[in-house]
Amino acid sequence: MNQKTLHNLSWIPVFLIGLIAVIMGLLWLIIDEPWLLDRAANEATLGTTFNELFSAQVNQNLPDYLTTIYRFFGLWVLGIGLFICTYVLITFMGTPKARNSLLTVLGLFLTILFYLAQTRIPISPFIYLIYGFILLYIVSFWASIQMNRSEPS
């Protein structure tokens, strides 16, 4: 495979991971009841429905609290996505150091994310998004290895 194709396969998948993170972060920031994006997994974890949970007088302010927590979560996801996109657009992962640095951190992050999702929210539809992230990561990792092999030391 030629170097230009390998280079594109090294940075575009990682940029897409960042872009999807930006979109997800924005969703958590703007949706009225963001905890409902993952309703089934959340209700399974809680062992009750949100309707039952919110109907108790003691939980009357719980929706406001959850909204605040999810807004902060959305801001973090948005920020991480923006950092990934910015790093990729500035470096285009053109050097082994740029590729290896980002892929090491991203690989560690995706491994932990996958573990937590599988053990804490295994019925979440976001599991499929994580599978997509891992597939994109593998493509970028493979292309980076191919590039590193063909570059002079």
Please give a structural write-up.
This protein is mainly α and 153 residues long. It has one domain (3-150). Helices cover 80% and strands 0% of the residues. It has 6 helices and no strands. It has helices at 3-30, 39-46, 50-55, 62-91, 96-120, 126-150. Helix 1 (3-30) packs antiparallel against helix 4 (62-91). The radius of gyration is 19 Å and the shape is elongated.
Mean pLDDT: 96
Largest sheet, if any?
A: none
Number of helices: 6
Helix and strand sequence = HHHHHH
Supply the helix-strand structural class: mainly alpha
Helix content: over 70%
Number of domains: 1
Radius of gyration over C-alpha positions, nearest whole angstrom: 19 Å
Distance between the termini: 20 Å
List the helices and strands and how they pair.
Layout lengths: L2 H28 L8 H8 L3 H6 L6 H30 L4 H25 L5 H25 L3
Task: Sum up the structure in keywords.
single chain; 153 residues; mainly alpha; 6 helices; elongated
Summarize the structure.
The protein is mostly helical and 153 residues long. 80% of the residues lie in helices and 0% in strands.
